[in-house]
Write a structure and sequence with these properties.
By secondary structure, the protein is of the alpha+beta class. The chain has a four-stranded mixed β-sheet with strand order 4-3-5-6, covered by helices on one side. The radius of gyration is 17 Å and the shape is globular.
Length: 167
């Protein structure tokens, strides 16, 4: 039986502030593994944001830019994981693209509004189309971000002489 804890959460969505009583489930079955490209400054910014959210302690982050095929689990190799965003549910189900983002949002209380929006008819399909349109321009956006001084996670860790703790 999952343990349930009442949590009061204040968060900002656009200009509207609201307070909600949320039930935070600490059931290990709710854990999610997120496979991301730590060599991409754009990806690192987004993942860093998710890591700071309430509920992120239930998420496992794996930097695939530093992983080998064997550490990614069944059905996912490094090349595929570097080319497209993936998440894996605790039951082993592998999701990618917009479905993967919706899965993260569903686990982060301040992003559940986006997960609910994604469940409306056609919204997830539109999100997937937008994600596929983003993929070809991601390398260009990453280069521009690097020129603007944003470093990918792997560069920050290399300069600090540390290895990622996630992989």
């Amino acid at each position: 039986m999952p343990r349930v804890q009442k949590v009061e959460l204040r968060y900002l969505i656009g200009m509207a502030t609201s307070t909600e009583k949320l039930e935070k489930t600490t059931d290990p079955a709710q854990d999610l593994t997120i496979y991301y490209d730590g060599s991409c400054p754009v990806c690192t910014i987004e993942i860093s944001h998710y890591r700071r959210q309430i509920g992120a302690d239930r998420l496992n982050f794996v930097d695939v830019s530093r992983a080998d095929d064997g550490s990614l689990g069944d059905g996912l190799d490094r090349r595929t994981a570097m080319a497209r965003f993936h998440v894996r549910r605790a039951d082993g189900t592998l999701l990618s693209g917009a479905q993967g983002f919706a899965e993260i949002w569903d686990r982060l209380p301040s992003w559940r509004w986006a997960a609910r929006l994604g469940r409306l008819p056609g919204v997830l399909a539109l999100g997937e189309l937008l994600y596929r349109a983003f993929l070809p321009i991601r390398p260009t956006l990453s280069r521009l971000a690097a020129r603007a001084g944003l470093q990918p996670e792997t560069a920050r860790q290399d300069s600090a002489g540390t290895r990622p703790s996630d992989a």
